[in-house]
Each structure stands twice: as structure tokens, then as C-alpha cells.
Amino acid sequence: MKTRLTDVLDLKYPIIQAPMAFAAGGALAAATSHSGALGMIGGGYGDLDWIDAQFEVAGQAHIGCGLITWALADRPWILRHVIKRNPKAIYLSFGDPAPYAEDILNAGIPLICQVQTWKDARRAIEVGANVVVAQGSEAGGHGENRGTMTLVPEVFDEIAKQNSNVALVAAGGIADGRGLAASFALGADGVVVGTRYWASKEALVHPRILANALAANGDDTLRTRVLDIVRDYDWPRRYTARAQRNAFLNTWHGSETDLLEDLEVQKEIWADAQQRGDTATVAAFAGEGLGLIDSAPSAQDIAGNIIEQASSILVPKFKV
Amino acid sequence: MKTRLTDVLDLKYPIIQAPMAFAAGGALAAATSHSGALGMIGGGYGDLDWIDAQFEVAGQAHIGCGLITWALADRPWILRHVIKRNPKAIYLSFGDPAPYAEDILNAGIPLICQVQTWKDARRAIEVGANVVVAQGSEAGGHGENRGTMTLVPEVFDEIAKQNSNVALVAAGGIADGRGLAASFALGADGVVVGTRYWASKEALVHPRILANALAANGDDTLRTRVLDIVRDYDWPRRYTARAQRNAFLNTWHGSETDLLEDLEVQKEIWADAQQRGDTATVAAFAGEGLGLIDSAPSAQDIAGNIIEQASSILVPKFKV
After folding, report:
1. How far apart are CA B199 and CA B285, in angstroms?
2. Is the pLDDT of residue B320 over 70?
């Protein structure tokens, strides 16, 4: 399948596996890249030991690496370190990419910028991103409020208006071939797939958390600040994280002030629960796509299955 | 264009104009029905004089009527009155349709149920709706939190699982042919279009409010309770309304308790501003689709333009 995205990133399939912090390690990235999509390590906040270990796990597979943009501000060496690993692409999310774009592009590494608003899409085009990912609120993990259905065509129009060659990728709620076909219709050149890869054999997810998520439907997630508070991350207020509802979130979502007052106790409860895979406390960072997912196959098969379903759909289902 | 929806509702095009309370009057509904889509009066909270007047304006056009389900509980005569006008369809949103479904179906009137969750979709199928509208959070006016991109295929799977013949319609963020084509890919038989019809010559929208909205982009809307508080509507907490940001919303959104304390004063300010079309105070009930809209054509042309664009897209844009 050829699109502008497969050309820019030299891929067999126009599918990027989301660089999910902590969940997307080297095994997932390698299996995905071997399948013909783009596998990515979720470099997240920038733990260099973890990132190095995952590159080792990935071995010879040519994989990309994602980083949280705002977390680079105090630690610019993280980006230099990742550039030295010669990733297939670097994927920046959540913050102004301007201070980092030049170093990435000068190293000859394709730059993927994920955005959550039309305004930030303009910024990503301006700094020279090779790929802009328009991420809707349906996505698991961090994001913002725009829906995929409107953000993608609006960014498409902006790209056309600027006469830009940047590739446009849709993210947020895309878990199967229907989502890929819909994204093409909206003007995207490909998709980022998160939750579908999160629920795979290779993702670094506790088996109890995974089993619990597979039984959920799309109504069972919400966007919240609670998980960042209890994990002590200083996320900019505009971004919240989508996760599966559970007892812990039902208790603290909407009562963030009370959580802050009891924070030391709750942090210990959380850390302990994480070891045990306690689903009442530790929430899965999963998107609305959970309702379209009920198994955890090998990542090796995911992209091919999406392509096969999308191809069958793109034969018009109606008569004009 | 033939789909299950055009069969069920006897339409030329698989497009339903959203029954937007106060904005969708008889002129809009008639122009839409004449064009081959389904025109609808926004019966809203059930002002019978207004509804009658709009049916008169629509004349011989065969149009539908929308009602807010929770508002029927205390005033069941509203539904009986609307049934007597023999609308082409009745469209219920926001509440359990069970107490009303039988009367509508017994009268031989197609029942359209709009839902915002997978759970409510199951209920709509159960009560015998002929059409289920899966409405994502991108939509203007009232709604909930699921995104169109995931809710539509998840409801599609539920319909298939139940072996039901109900027609599935996508709503939320669909403003052009790309949205229709994407909705088909997700499994829908057609679409509900709101904001695109709200920005039309025939909609009952103050010209200043309309001009201000046409200049906005999709980042400029938010979901809020403020507009229901200041208008004194007792909406169930799960539903919020999407509207265009302005000074009034920037002041009170997130400060709802303060608004309630100053309510009598603010209600007067609001009512006065509404007369004048003061865009700093009166917010447009518009969806994220605003970013895809920059003109207000006649409703007569909207459906045809959407179909034309969708048809050009549904030729695959890539080579397998």
C-alpha cells in the first residue's frame, strides 16, 4: 500500500505504532517494524537507561523513538542521546517542537510531530516536521479535546493552504481497518495506532491489567489528571490522560484537591498496586478503541489485519 | 445514493439535518427535505406554539421533528401533539426512549433515537428504533463524551451481534463529504449534519452570531454547562453543550458556582444580549465542524455538495 506516508518513512504499510511510554518497548517496536509498519519505543519522559535497554531488545530492527516534548526542556541531552541511536524517526508530542526540530532534521532523521489542535498543527508545519499526527481526544494516554473526525480534515486544509508537502496522519480511536479507511476519507496519509498495539503480546503491560481492559467497552474510559498527580508528573494543564475507569479513578477524579492532600499515602498504594497488577487501583492507559478490541494478538499481525480490513471497505458500499 | 437509511426513510440522500432547538425551523426543514435529505424541526423542549408555527412555515414539505426526551416526562401531551402533525420521522435525544417508542411506532412514524454511548445504543435497539444515531462529542449543542470515530463502529458491531436491521447513522463533526465518506467506512448508513446546516441561509440564527462563527476554527469550541444554567434548563448532568468560546464562556466556564450566585443579573444580561446578537455574551451552539465551514449557503445545496464530495473520495486514494 503506497501513500505519502509510506514514501516519507519508507514503510510497507501506512501505519505507525504509537510510542506509548512504558508500554512500547523494544519487543513491540521490533515486531511492528518487521511487519512493515513503523515500530516505536515509547521514550516518554527520557529515562536513558530504559531507552538504551529497549534499543538493545529491538536489535537490528529499524525502529523509531517517541519523546515528550515538555520533558526535554530541562534535559536537552536526552534528545542528543536518542539521535545518536539513529532511530528510523523521532516522534515529539506535547509541547513546542521548535527548539528540537533543527537538530533532528540536521541528523537526517525524519521528524514526526503530534498535535492536538489546528493551531499546533500550523506550528509543526512551520518547524519543518516531515509528518504531522493529528491526535483526537479518543486516544488513550495523554491528549486533549479535539475529535479525530474534525481535526484531521481541518489540518488537511491547512496543509493544502500552505502548499506544504508534510504527510498527515490521523490518531485517536483508530483500532481496525475501518478506522484506517475513515482516516483516508478524512484526508490522512496513514494512521497512528495506540490501544490496538497496547493490547498485544509484545507490549509491556501487566497481564491482569490487560485482561481487565479486554473485557471493557468504549464507554469505560475517561480523560483525567489523577494518574499524573499520583505518579508525580508535572504535566501542562491542557493535557489530560485517557484511561480505563476503575475504583481508584472513580474515587479521585473530580476530587483532585483531596488526592493532593493525601498524596504520600496514595503514592505508596499506587506503587504497591502496580507491582501486583491490581486493576482496582492501577488504571490502564487505554483509549476509546477498547470497545473494538477483545484479544491481544502478536504485533506482527496487527498492521496486516488492519490493511486487509481497510482494503475490503474501500470498495464503495453504496450505489450512486 | 442508496443505503439502508435512504430505504428506511425514503430519501434521495442518506443525510439527516439535525433538529437543532430554536435554530432549525420550518424554512430550514423544508429546504432540506426538498433537496432530498431529511429536514427536521428542532422541537427541543416542546413549545407547541413554536412547533405548530414551524410546521406551517414548512408547508407541504414532508419533514421530521426532534424532541428532547427528558423534557417529555412531565408533558406527555407534547409527543401526542407532534404525532398528530404526521411528521416524516420523530427524533428523540437525551433520555430513555422506552416510554415513548410504542406510541410513535404504532402511529406508523419512523423512530430515530440519538445516543451518546454504546450502552444507550443497546437500549435504542431494544425499544425498536428504526434508526440509531451514534453522536460523538464533536457535535455542536448537547451531547456527551465519546468520539464519533469509535462510537460508530462499536455500535455497528452491537447491531450486527444482535442481528438487528436498525439503520446506523453517524453524528458529530460531519460537515462535508469527507465526513460522510469516513462515516461509511466506519459502518454507518448515513449521517446527521448539524453545524453545517446551522450555518445556512435558512437557519434561525442571528446574523451577527453567524458571521462571528464563520470566522472561527475548530479549536474555538468547548463543552459546557454554563449556557444551560443561564437559560434555566435543568439538563441531566451527563449532558453538556458544545458552543463557540466567547467572553461570557471564558468568564463563567469552570466558575459555575459563582454564576449561580449571580444568576438573576446574568439572566437579564443574557436575554438582552440575545436580542442584540451580542457575540461577546451569546455563544453559538456550534460544533468542532466550524473549522470546516466558512460560508452560509442555502440549505437547498448542502446535501448535494456533501454527496458530490463524498463520491469523489470513495475512489481509493492509494494502491494496494
Report:
1. 11
2. no
- Angstrom distance (rounded) from CA A118 to CA B175: 16
The conformation of residue B133, written as its DSSP 8-state character, comes to E
- Mode of pairing for the β-strands spanning A90-93 and A111-115: parallel
Nearest Cα to Cα of residue B42 among B80, B82, B14, B12 = B82
Give the gap in angstroms from C-alpha B248 to the nearest C-alpha of chain A.
20
Listed by number, the residues of chain A in 205-244 with a beta carbon closer than 8 Å to a beta carbon of chain B are 217-219, 222
**Which residues are bridge partners to B16 per DSSP?**
B38, B192
Q: Rg for chain A (alpha carbons), in Å? A: 19
Alpha carbon of A177: minimum distance to chain B alpha carbons (Å): 9
**Residue A85 contacts residue A55 (beta carbons within 8 Å):** yes
Distance CA B167, CA B132 (A): 6
Please tell me the distance in Å from A183's CA to the nearest CA on chain B.
Answer: 7
- Beta strands, E only, A184-284: 190-193, 221-224, 240-244
Query: Considering only CA atoms, which of A111, A107, A112 is closest in space to residue A85?
Result: A107
How far apart are alpha carbons A181 and A201 in whole angstroms?
Answer: 25
User: B318 and A184 in contact by Cβ < 8 A?
Assistant: yes
Question: Nearest by CB to B137, which of A147, A316, A317?
Answer: A147
Over residues B36-90, the pLDDT tens digits come to 999 999 999 999 999 999 999 999 999 999 999 999 999 999 999 999 999 999 9
- From residue A17, give the alpha-carbon distance in Å to each of A28, A88, A89: 9, 13, 12
Q: How far apart are CA A174 and CA A289, in angstroms?
A: 7
B309 touches chain A (CB under 8 A): no
CATH of domain B4-204+293-313: 3.20.20.70
* Strand ranges (E), B55-130: 64-68, 90-93, 111-115
Q: Which residue spans of chain A are classified as CATH 3.20.20.70?
A: 4-204+293-313
Q: For B314, name the nearest residue in chain A, comparing CA atoms only.
A: A316
Query: How many Å apart are CA A308 and CA B299, to the nearest integer?
Result: 38
The amino acid at residue A125 is: I
Task: Encode pLDDT of B160-186 as tens digits.
Answer: 999 999 999 999 999 999 999 999 999
| A186 contact residues in B (CB cutoff 8 A) | 178-179, 182
